[in-house]
Each structure stands twice: as C-alpha cells, then as structure tokens.
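2024-03-11 09:14:02 DEBUG pipeline.ingest accepted 1 chain
2024-03-11 09:14:02 DEBUG pipeline.ingest length=63
2024-03-11 09:14:03 DEBUG pipeline.predict start
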Amino acid sequence: MNYSIDKILNIVNSKYQLVYIAAKRATQMDETKHYQMKEKDYKSKKSLDKALEEVQNGLIHVN
C-alpha cells in the first residue's frame, strides 16, 4: 500500500465517496488502459490501488 487513507480522507470528505470514486476510476483504468501518470510511476500494481494513488496525488478532483 503506497498511499495513506488518512491523507486521502482530508481530500475526500466521506469514506463512502472515496470507495465510489476509487472503484469507478479503477474500472475505467481496466477498461480503457488510460492512466493519469506514467505506468512506471505507480507504486501499486492493482487498479484500485492506482486509483487511490491518483486521488492522493490530486489527479482526481472531488467536489
């Protein structure tokens, strides 16, 4: 795990919203193979973990 849930919850107000956002983004990555960062820059292997890295790095904006 290369992200901090505590840090992410400062970005996303609700853990339920975080689950929804991460799951949706992970599905998009699996279907389209489109990534916000270069694949080698991700520390994680799984799409869900990559999605959480994107949220933590501010690449996914949450309203």
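2024-03-11 09:14:41 DEBUG pipeline.report The chain has one domain: 5-56.
2024-03-11 09:14:41 DEBUG pipeline.predict end
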